[in-house]
Amino acid sequence: MTTEGRRVRQSVSACLLLTAVVVLCPPSAQGVESSWDPIEPLNRGIFRFNDKLDVYILEPTARGWNWLVPDPVQRSIARFFDNVRFPVVAVNDLLQGKLTACGSDIGRFAVNTTVGVLGFMDPAADWGLDRHDEDFGQTLGVWGVPSGPYLVLPLLGPSSPRDAGGVVADSFASVYPWFVPVYYTIGPRAVEMVNFRSQILDEVREAKLAAVDYYVFVRDAYIQRRQRQVEDTTGMTEEEQRELYYFNGEGQ
What we know:
The chain is an all-alpha fold. It has one domain. The protein has 12 helices and 2 strands; from the N terminus they run αααααααββααααα. The protein has helices at 3-23, 40-68, 71-84, 86-95, 99-114, 123-126, 136-142, 161-173, 182-199, 201-210, 214-231, 238-247, and strands at residues 151-153, 157-159. It has a two-stranded antiparallel sheet with strand order 1-2. Strand 1 (151-153) and strand 2 form a beta hairpin. The longest helix is centred in the N-terminal third of the chain and has 29 residues, at 40-68.
């Protein structure tokens, strides 16, 4: 079996395992609106590990990046990576039956990739083509699959069995890994993380200072945001969504 074949087989197996974990969760504890955290000691240990990586590696690097790269360039880079993520969003639009949103996202991709120079600019916003943020974890939630217990994953941050399985599924919708060797994607992914972290330096610092228990703050923010996303009742400004994107672990 080829290396690519083994990788696909391993990904499928992981997805099936995570789905089985969700299905076997006790019904009384499945709602994402509750902070069900049965393995909190282990989660806290992983959370501390992730936070140390942020404090000693990611945050200093982001501060250097913030000093070196002007804000308009940082925003352009963020728009580029949003544009690259289009296949994942569009596929999940369809799976959730959101045909209007899918049409808008297809239009955004077409306009921003051409007129917007590969997505570095966002003329589609001026044309009334709204941006959406969908993933397979949300799709499973829309289909009625419970989230299961709260999890903190090494490097990836806050999650749940449902959302972890969604990450595996979304990897198949990401077109470029099928055509570009994985090691070529490490550099761009690092740039995306550092660029994003540089945009929320103050927000994260203030959250850590204000929170009595930062672990609980991040956990509750994650659970509330995922519930809002599944129900399409975010009720948050773009800036608030950007902050929670990091707190939820998605920017790590």
